Amino acid sequence: MKVRPLPSSGPYELVAWRINDKVRVRKNARYWDVANTRTELIDFLPIGSPTTALNLYETGQADIVFDNNLVPVDLIDVLIKRPDFHSFPMLGTYFIRCNTTRKPFNDPRVRKALALAVDKERIVRSSPRPANGPPIRSRRRASRAIIRPRGALRSERARKLLAEAGYPGGKGFPPFQYMFDAAAGGAAKIHGKVAVELQQMWREQLGLNMELRQVEWKVYLADEERLDFDLNRSSWFGDYNDADTYLNMFMSNNGNNRTGWTNAAYDELIRSADRENDPARREQLFQHAETMLIRDECPIIPLFLYVGLSYYDDTKIKGVYNNILDYHPLNAIYKVDAGTRKGTK
After folding, report:
1. pLDDT at 334
2. What distance in Å separates the CA atoms of residue 209 and residue 251, rounded to the nearest whole number?
3. Which CATH topology does 89-306 take?
C-alpha cells in the first residue's frame, strides 16, 4: 500500500519518522518557493548525548549540530579554536526566580542581598557574558539598573541589607532550597555548576545554608507553576528584539511571571511603554521598569547571557547565518559538494 506524505504548506514534507533513529523530510514540490529550496532530503537525528553528537559529526554522519546542549561542555575551550566551531550572541538570559510569596524571600532586602552577593564574573569565567539586565541589542545606552558596585563594596552592601532584614551574618536565616532541572546534554552540567557556585558564594558572603534540589523536567515545571520552590534556575529567550519580550512577562497577571511578585506601578510602566509612540520615551519607561525589576525589587536575579554554539564546515555547508534568535530556514541550507541530491543531516 502506498502511503501519501503528510500534507504540508512549508518547504518540506514528512517522509519518515523512526523512533530513536531519524526524522526524514523531502522537498515539497507544491511549496510556493520550491525553486529556491536548495536541499532535496534532510535527516534530523534524535541525539541526546553531546559526545555522541560530536562523534557523528567527526565521522561524517552528521553535517550540522545546532543544539547548544549537544556541545560537550568540557571541550568548549578546545572546540572554540576550530574553524568549524561557531559561537554568536543570542537573545537569551539565564536567571534566578525568587518565590516572593515565601518568607524570607518576601522581603526585597533579602532578595537584593542575594543578588549583590553573586559574583557573576566567577560564574561565567569560561562562559558567556555576565548579565545585569535583559540582552536587548537595540538599547542605545546602559540602563541605570545595570550599574553594579564591585568586589568588597558589593559584599558589604549585601551583608548590610541582610542585617537590616533581621539576619545579621546569616543568623536565624532558615535553610532554603535552590531548584534546578535535570536537563539533557551539556545543560545538565551547566545547571549543576551554577548551583554549586551560588551555594558557595552565599555561604561565604552571607553565611547562608542553601540546599540543592535537582528534579526531573516535568516536576520542575509543575513546582514552578504552583510556586512550590524557594529559588530556582530559569531562562528566557526573546521572541523578538525588544525589551517588551522580557519585561512584560513579570507583570502581575502574566502567566510567565512565576515568582508571585506583583507591583501595580511596574504594570503601569509596561502598559505605558506599550502605548508610547516616541522611541526615546518608550525606552525610558522600559529602563525605569527594568530598574524596579532587577535593582529595587529583585524578584529575579540575572546571571548571564546565552551564547549560541554550533559546529559545521562552512566551506561545505552554505546558507547558515548566525543570528540572535538562532533561526535557520532549512530551505536556504545546502551542501556545496553534493548539490541538492544528497541532502543534509
Report:
1. 94
2. 31
3. Dipeptide-binding Protein; domain 3 (3.10.105)
